[in-house]
Amino acid sequence: MYRKSKSNGKGTTYDLREVVTNIKWSTDLNFSAGELTFDLIQNAHPIIPYTGDIITFRWDHHKIFYGYVFKYEVKEDNTVSVTCYDKSRYLKNQDSIVWQSGTIADRFNNVCKRAGIKHKVVDKPTHKVSAEVCDGKTYFDMVKSAIVKTRTATKHMYYIYCNYDVVELRRAPYKKLKMIIGSKSAMTGFSYAVDINNTANVVKVIQKDTKKSQAKSATAKQDDPKRTSFKSTSAAGKSTEQWGKLQETVNKKNKANHAQMVKQAKDELRKKNRANKELTIDCLGHVDLVAGNAVTIKINDLGKTLKNCPILKAEHNFGADYNCHLTMKVGAEWLGNS
């Protein structure tokens, strides 16, 4: 691991390999920057990586991380705890932009240029999303809006990943790893959870009708019960027999007719009428076990073999016992809830 200081204007580089411990690297598919944390252990006069300093990290000849110090904490025992983020952290910058119709790549290239970060479109989408006004939103949110719309229309999942010092737009799964993580190979522990807390098996699309009042009032803001009525259309799934009625309501899309309301209800039901299944895996470390890739999981205790299981989040703990903690998506491939 190396630290390059820019504060003295000379770009001094420090080799931290002999004094660093507790190295953790995290990647997350949920529009979060890659994070590297570590501790510096020194007997006296610690080398403090100041905010903005560049930290680079390699493991077994692989380029793992290139980023910047965003936080450091000096403790009385001369330990310095450091938190760094990769270049995608600058996509948390906020801005106001009127987007014309275009692809995810159009937005991605635009915001990366505005953020001043090196970037690359690895997998180019062709679907164009409609024009949109984004006022005071982060660059992450602006790209996410296009990603969600593209996923709904094409079933293709795109995501942002920082490949060392280049921020990339990729399509998932980026790699289908040939390795198998199982009860008898590489896996050291697991947890499998199923819940229906955010599930809906009945979706009702609501249209509110309000009759105009003859009296004009600048202060009247609440709906008048005498002049307000609701029309609706619903879509229901067979899971009501097993789970009971789990209903959710949404407002109809602007100017939608009855047929479009029916389609809206069915589309929302398709997304909501499933149990959330989450699998976490503890396993031996491998540098390709990162968010956006897929790997086959075999768990004898559950009698399950999950081929090309999506990695949503990966935490790497480097050291003598290099290991990973993975959060996986089960059952819905890359089309999980937004």
From TrEMBL:
Alphabetical UniProt keywords: Coiled coil
Domain YqbQ/XkdQ: 23-328
Record Pfam families: YQBQ
Region Disordered, residue ranges: 211-243
Positions in coiled-coil regions: 255-282
Sequence intervals crossing the membrane: none
Start-end of Polar residues biased regions: 230-242
Name of the protein this chain belongs to: Late control protein D
Organism: Lactobacillus bombicola
